[in-house]
């Protein structure tokens, strides 16, 4: 996902450009404004965390871009491309170092396993919307 901080600052095109230049193929993509209920469901795994309310409110504060990306070793390579969750700790040249402002408003989300990538892809896309 490209998160609301990045879409609202006009970084969507630059972030997609960086992702595609890193070798990822876009298999599905949509521009969507999540409701608080939808954002809460997506991040339900973090329900008990102290930042859950803030995370859900932020993720439903504006449009996001959801995408399914394909590449060999996609999960690990995408996490390297986006950098650490906290942009202050992200390596130079990573998407979060380039575009994020804080640990909460950190520009992008990437799945943390192949299994979660399948679950998260199914959250946003039907079979008709991917190829
Ligand atoms: P993401 O990769 O989308 O997965 C969960 C998100 O929770 C994470 O990126 C951060 O945006 C957010 N998050 C993690 N830790 C904190 C924190 N300490 N305060 C606020 N948000 C956080």
UniProtKB/TrEMBL annotation:
Pfam families: NDK. Keywords: ATP-binding, Kinase, Magnesium, Metal-binding, Nucleotide metabolism, Nucleotide-binding, Phosphoprotein, Transferase. Its EC number is 2.7.4.6. One of its GO terms (molecular function) is metal ion binding. InterPro entries: NDK-like_dom, NDK-like_dom_sf, Nucleoside_diP_kinase. SUPFAM superfamilies: Nucleoside diphosphate kinase, NDK. One of its GO terms (biological process) is CTP biosynthetic process. ATP binds at residues 3, 51, 79, 85, 96, 106. Its cofactor is Mg(2+). Residues 1-129 form the Nucleoside diphosphate kinase-like domain. The keyword Kinase applies. The active site is at residue 109. The keyword Magnesium applies. Belongs to the NDK family. NCBIfam families: PRK00668.1, PRK14545.1. This is nucleoside-diphosphate kinase. It comes from Filimonas lacunae.
């Amino acid at each position: 996902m490209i998160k609301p901080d990045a879409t609202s600052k006009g970084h969507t095109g630059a972030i997609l450009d960086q992702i595609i230049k890193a070798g990822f193929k876009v298999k599905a993509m949509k521009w969507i404004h999540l409701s608080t209920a939808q954002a809460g469901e997506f991040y339900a795994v973090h329900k008990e965390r102290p930042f859950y309310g803030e995370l859900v409110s932020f993720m439903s504060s504006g449009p996001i871009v959801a995408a399914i990306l394909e590449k060999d070793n996609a999960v690990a390579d995408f996490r390297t491309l986006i950098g650490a969750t906290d942009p202050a700790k992200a390596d130079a040249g990573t998407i979060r170092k380039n575009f994020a402002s804080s640990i909460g408003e950190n520009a992008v989300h990437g799945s943390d396993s192949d299994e979660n990538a399948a679950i998260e892809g199914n959250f946003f896309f039907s079979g008709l919307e991917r190829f």
